[in-house]
UniProtKB/TrEMBL annotation:
Gene3D superfamilies: Lipoprotein localisation LolA/LolB/LppX. Keywords: Lipoprotein, Signal. The keyword Membrane does not apply. This is Outer membrane lipoprotein carrier protein LolA. SUPFAM superfamilies: Prokaryotic lipoproteins and lipoprotein localization factors. The lineage of its organism: Bacteria, Pseudomonadati, Bacteroidota, Flavobacteriia, Flavobacteriales. InterPro entries: LolA/LolB/LppX, OM_lipoprot_carrier_LolA-like. Residues 1-19 form the signal peptide.
């Protein structure tokens, strides 16, 4: 009988500790989202790694992105992608081609860089994970657990957050097939004096390119 009582006490404490842990993680996520949404614009430089040991794949590159509301300008893997609020312009210098398409704001599957900073707002439960030291900064990791029936191909997502600034520092996504995506922020700047034309596409600059209008 004594062992049963002790066991129940342990289970009760574990449940309470987990509930407290989840609440702490949820509060931290809300603080992160509030911080991101408070900025007029954000400019990020990042390192990107895609790895699958089973398929002997490892791809490493760097990129940068500027975000203002829903508008963005992304440079990654030799391609520039611009969204001016209405159309998406994908500029591919290697092929001398520009692809122009409409943005469908009703399409929940349409992922944009601006959504990448807030995608974890819904559809997940949260757990506090480890704290790591990175060049004198403490990075708090939060584990994102997809709600049942959503993101079934994702095994695990970890967000690393700078405890001092509450800025995102690391994103780790592991899929069920073993593919691991790592994004590490190298520079995070807010409220930069961006030109009014920063998110505009000037077709005159690409006269020698093939313009592929999808819509």
């Amino acid at each position: 009988m004594k062992n049963i009582i002790i066991g129940l006490l342990v289970l009760g404490f574990t449940f309470y500790a987990n509930a407290q842990n989840n609440k702490e993680a949820e509060n931290l996520v809300q603080d992160i989202l509030s911080k991101v949404k408070s900025y007029d614009n954000i400019s990020i430089e990042f390192a990107y790694t895609l790895e699958n040991l089973n398929e002997n794949i490892k791809q490493e590159t760097r990129g940068d992105v500027s975000i203002e509301g829903d508008k963005y300008l992304l440079n990654l893997m030799g391609t520039t992608r611009v969204f001016d609020g209405k159309k998406i312009y994908t500029i591919i210098p290697e092929d001398e081609e520009v692809i122009i398409s409409n943005y469908n704001d009703q399409d929940e599957n349409e992922i944009t860089p601006s959504k990448m900073l807030t995608f974890f707002e819904e559809g997940y439960t949260y757990e506090m994970d480890i704290v790591q030291n990175y060049k004198g900064r403490k990075i708090q990791f939060i584990k994102l657990i997809p709600n049942p029936g959503s993101n079934e191909d994702i095994d695990e997502i970890l967000l690393g957050v700078d405890q001092q600034t509450l800025h995102l520092h690391t994103l780790i996504q592991v899929q069920e097939n073993g593919t691991k995506t790592l994004i590490q922020v190298k520079s995070f700047k807010k409220n930069q004096p961006l030109s009014v034309k920063h998110f505009e596409f000037n077709e005159e600059q690409y006269k020698d390119y093939y313009i592929n209008r999808l819509d």
